[in-house]
Amino acid sequence: MKLSRLALLLCVFALGPLLTHASGQKESLLIGPGDLLHIQVLDTPELEQHPRVTDAGDIPLLGLSPLKVSGLTPAAAAQKIQDYFISSHYMDHPSVTVTVDQYATQTISVLGEVKLPGAYSITAPRSVLDAIALSGGLTENADRHITIQRHDRSIPPIPYNLSNDAPKAMQDQVMVYPGDIILVPHAEIAYVLGDVNRPGGILMQNNHSQLTLMQAVSLAGGTQSSAVPSKTRLIHRAEDGTFKEVDVNFSRIQKGKDPDIVLQPQDVVYVPFSYLRNVAASASGIVASATSATIYAIP
Q1: Distance CA 174, CA 31 (A)
Q2: Domain locations in the chain?
Q3: What's the pLDDT at 152?
Q4: pLDDT digits over 231-249, tens only?
C-alpha cells in the first residue's frame, strides 16, 4: 500500500507541470477597459480600492503610478500588483486579490446568419452554443465557421467551428464574455447549371465549408437523361473578374475513373444539354445565368 501511494505521488509530481500547462491553455475572463475592479490586500484594509480600468488599460494604485492590467485575468492582475508592490518597496509580503465588480458592458452581440441577431444581456461567461441559442439559432444560410471577437480588441479573433457532430460541437465550444462579438457568416456558394434537375446555387455549409463536384451535382438533383456529362465545364472566377474554364469528364468521375474535384466559392459547374448547345454556351453567359440562380440549402 505504501509503495502504491509513493508511486501515485511521484506521478502527480511528474505530471504537475504538464497539467498546469494544459490548464493554462484554457480561456479565462480577461480584464478590459471600463471594467470596475475590486482590489484587496490581506490585513491592509486601507489599501482596498475600487478602480475603473482606463481606456489605456491602466488602473490607479494608492501611492503608486498607474499599472496596466487590461488583457489579464483577475488572478494574473493580482500577481502583477503584488510584484509591483514588492519591486516598488511599498510592501514586502503583500497578498492581493482582484475581482471584477462590474463589466464595462453586460451584453454580447450575435450578428450575421442567426435568426434573431442583436445584443443580449449576460451576467456571467456563457458558452458560444448558449449565445447562439439566445439569438434563435443559425439560419439555413449560415456558415459553420464562426468568429468571436473579444471585448479586448488587442486579442486576435477566435475561430470556432460549429460541427454537425453534436458531441464534437459540445466538446470544442468556446466561452464568450460580456462585450464579445459573435459573427456567423453567410455560407459560400457554388453553382450547378445546365441539364440538371434543380439548377441553382448550392451552399457550402458542411463542417469543412467545402463541396466537391459530385456532391454539388447530386444536390442539384443529378443530371437529366439528355445531358452530356462527359463535356462538363468548370468555370473559376479569378480575383480580377476574369473566368478560367476547365473541361471535366464528369462521366469518368461518376464511374470512379477520375478523382472528384473540390469546388471553390463562386465556381460554376455547367452540364451541357447537347454537344451543339455545349459549344454555343459562353463562359460569360453561363456566369451571368448563375447570378440569378435559385439557392438550395444543403439538407
Answers
A1: 18
A2: 22-102, 107-184, 188-296
A3: 78
A4: 999 998 877 777 888 999 9
